[in-house]
Amino acid sequence: MEHSVEPVDLSDSSKIVLEVSGLSFHYPDRPSVLQDISFEVCSGERVGVIGPNGAGKTTLFMLICGLFKPSSGEIRLFRKRVIPGEFCPEVGLVFQNPDDQLFCPSVEDDVAFGPRNLGLPKDEVDARVREALEVTGVLDLRNRPPHHLSGGEKRLVAIAGVLAMHPRLVIYDEPTSNLDIRYRRRLIRFLQTSSQEAMLIASHDLEFILEVCRRVILMDGGKIVADGNPREILGNVTLMEAHGLERPHSLVPHAEPHHN
Question: Where are the domains of the chain?
């Protein structure tokens, strides 16, 4: 289902929140995890990052968050160079496994953890927690222990914890992983209506990418091989198959058999 959004003016440099220039990275036993990656993301953009396993998507996200040091190249967030190991509250990362983020006795404490560590006044922390829980639709879970929640509830609480930091760029790593149909649809609707933050979303769920994103970056072998309109890239059978992916079912013409 298409969801109308206001187009992002990529010509306005003041709206650029992320600049990646000539980025390369390698582990000691893997010489070419990322090779000469360059792209920009503007305020309000929802960018899907797709590719086969081992394409370098998660490593790219770790570099953007300053958790790894680039072998070469540069990353700038809001015009400032990313310094590895230096905390940037304007960027939020939602991990693939929400159990990696939820560790406090209650949902409320988990969502409050980030704002409290910013040294914000209690009234401000409380307001941010309530706002984040309301926008993700899980306010009724605020007193529950995280380990008593379902997988979908944990995912939304993890997102609330990131949003309570008021980030300007949110990075999602496989956000629909292990979600049932109900929570997957709930997440899609939430992301479709979240227009303020820029987003980078890595996912193997290509139907999800089609519904949520208006731009796709296709990675393979540590390189960007395509960057553009999701329907054009995901609908290109030759391109997709060359990089270990399948065209989404919704883009298969009705006149063409869906299955052999």
Answer: 46-58+86-246
| Cα atoms in the 13 Å half-sphere on the side-chain side of 245 | 28
HSE-up of residue 187 (Cα within 13 Å, Cβ side): 28
- Both tokens of 101, joined, read 């983020």
For the beta sheet containing 30-42, the strands, ordered from the edge strand earlier in sequence to the opposite edge, are 30-42, 16-27, 72-77, 80-81
- Domain 46-58+86-246's class? alpha beta
Token reading at 68: 């790894």
pTM for the structure as a whole: 0.87
What integer pLDDT is reported at residue 254 of this predicted model? 64
Walk along the chain (260 residues) in steps of 10 and give the mean pLDDT of each run. Answer: 40 78 90 92 96 94 94 94 90 90 93 93 96 91 93 91 93 90 90 85 96 96 96 96 94 65
Torsion of CA 66, 23, 47, 218, to 10 degrees: -130
Structure tokens at 132: 């984040």
d(CA 203, CA 50): 6
Distance CA 220, CA 51 (A): 6
